[in-house]
Every structure is written in C-alpha cells, then in structure tokens.
Amino acid sequence: MQIVVTLDCLDTEAQAGFWLAALAPLGYRRGFEGPPYLSLVGPAPAPTLLLQQVPEPKQGKNRMHLDLDFDTEDLDAEVDRLKRLGAQKISEEQSEHGFRWVVVADPEGNEFCVFDPPSSLGSA
C-alpha cells in the first residue's frame, strides 16, 4: 500500500521547486511527470506528494494539511528556512499536549504545519 497526497496548484513547476527544497531534509526527489501531474517521491515509507495543475487558485482554508517533523527543536530556524524558500508564516508557535507547531503556507497559500513532538515520543 502507498499513500499519495495530492496538492492542487496553478504552477506545478514553481510548486515543485518550493516543495523539493522544503522537503530536502527528508530526501524527496522528482518522480513521475505527465501534465497535469508532477510527483515528488520520498524514501519509503514516506507518502508521495502529487502536484496537480488546476485552473483555479486556492480558496478558503485547507480541509487537509501536512504536518512536517524535520527532527529539530528549533522551530523558528526551520520556519525561517521555509520563509527563505517562499513560504509565509501564518501563526506564531502553538503548543498542546507536548506538541509544538507553527502554521506556514507554501507560495500558493496551502497551509501546513512544522512541528516538534513531545520528547517522550521522539521524532516521527
């Protein structure tokens, strides 16, 4: 079984550039390409991120989003790295049940979280 997460976007090449750089610490690379799709593949068992070109821009809040654990306790440094790649910081650091996270958005406005799990859980 494989999990594929599909992300609608206006510009698959621009989004691929952002997401490949953002996911570089996790080992993602380009995979299948065939308009309107472009896939980004991580090492098993990581899910594939499938970019799908659509004609309309994002509207409203995501109904589903990615939570990314980059295995760092310095969330500010990770958010700063993502901002240099073109992300926008949406929220200040939040915490609940030992989890800490910051909400950011990719260049087309798709929200995702950068998080640090409680030390008792370790890295995801």
Automatic annotation (TrEMBL):
<dbReference type="InterPro" id="IPR037523">
    <property type="entry name" value="VOC_core"/>
</dbReference>
<dbReference type="InterPro" id="IPR029068">
    <property type="entry name" value="Glyas_Bleomycin-R_OHBP_Dase"/>
</dbReference>
<feature type="domain" description="VOC">
    <location>
        <begin position="1"/>
        <end position="117"/>
    </location>
</feature>
<dbReference type="InterPro" id="IPR041581">
    <property type="entry name" value="Glyoxalase_6"/>
</dbReference>
<protein>
    <submittedName>
        <fullName>VOC family protein</fullName>
    </submittedName>
</protein>
<dbReference type="Pfam" id="PF18029">
    <property type="entry name" value="Glyoxalase_6"/>
</dbReference>
